[in-house]
Amino acid sequence: MNAERVPVLMYHRVGEMHNHWEEKYCVSPQRFAEHMHALVQANWQAVSIEDFMAWRQGQHALPEKSFLISFDDGFRGVHEHAWPVLRQYRWPAVMFLVSHLIGQEDVWSKNENPGGRTYPLLNEAEITEMTQGGFSFHGHSRRHWDLTSLNEAELADETAGCKAELERLGIPCRYFAYPYGRFGEREAAAVMSAGFEAAFSVQPGFNRPGGDAFRIRRLDIFGTDTAAMLLRKISLGSNDGRFMTWAGYYFKQLQGRLGL
Ligand SMILES: [Zn+2]
User: Is residue 72 part of a domain?
Assistant: First the structure.
């Protein structure tokens, strides 16, 4: 049976946390392993971005409980801590890279977390290695600037420039994730005219075949999410995985089934 709706999980860094701000963007290695284990136990199955895209276009069937794992920014901690777990389950994943900062650090985080640290981003050799082991790499701008704050020339550089930079490294770059999830009509149009085929937002919810290719929905997974919270988020298609939200959702479904 073909899946009617497919959730996309969004992770950022996997590693150790050093201050409270990072909790939203960093999952500890142990917690990441717990998340993946819980998904396996609950019969979820990670699919590749290629299969997900073909499913969106109605060209490929996916089983129920299929989902896509995405990582934004390109942190080296994903290579170190998440990739070994994913390999164990033979699960593919997609990562969105900041093309101008490959092999450097997430300097843009300083704006939001001025007292915090910066962390290393993947280098070319690590990207090549992961490509051979189930990862697909796509674009997340050149410098991780907020696209909505840019003039036309800068916007073109952050989108088309990102694609060109990644393609020069031999990365076939077809999809984009908006930095900070910030975009409107103008930014979506720029991503499209840069030659990207689809773009990922941070708007929560499930994806269904035929939806807007430049507004793909994703669920935000936080460092504070327990495995139980993650399972509620992925079954609800919501960033709100609190127990009462989940219980209310299933109660309503039950009422509907009983015709109450
Ligand atoms: Zn980002």
Answer: yes
Distance 71 CA to ligand 1 centre (A): 9
- CA 22 to ligand 1 center in whole angstroms: 13
Is 120 domain-assigned? yes
With respect to residue 1, please indicate whether it lies within any of the assigned structural domains. Answer: no
Three-state secondary structure along the chain? CCCCCECEEEECEECCCCCHHHHHCEECHHHHHHHHHHHHHCCCEECCHHHHHHHHCCCCCCCCCEEEEEEEECEHHHHHHHHHHHHHHCCCEEEEECHHHCCCECCCHHHHCCCCCCCEECCHHHHHHHHCCCEEEEECCCCCCCHHHCCHHHHHHHHHHHHHHHHHCCCCCCEEECHHHCCCHHHHHHHHHCCCCEEECCCCCCECCCCCCCCECCEECCCCCCHHHHHHHHHHCCCCCCHHHHHHHHHHHHHHHHCC
pTM as predicted: 0.94
Domain that residue 206 falls in = 8-258
- Rounded to the nearest angstrom, the distance between the alpha carbon of 142 and the centre of ligand 1 is 11
Which residue has better confidence, 242 or 93? 93
Rounded to the nearest angstrom, the distance between the alpha carbon of 257 and the centre of ligand 1 is 41
What are the tens digits of pLDDT across the range 155-200? 999 999 999 999 999 999 999 999 999 999 999 999 999 999 999 9
Ligand 1 centroid to Cα of residue 225, in Å, is: 19
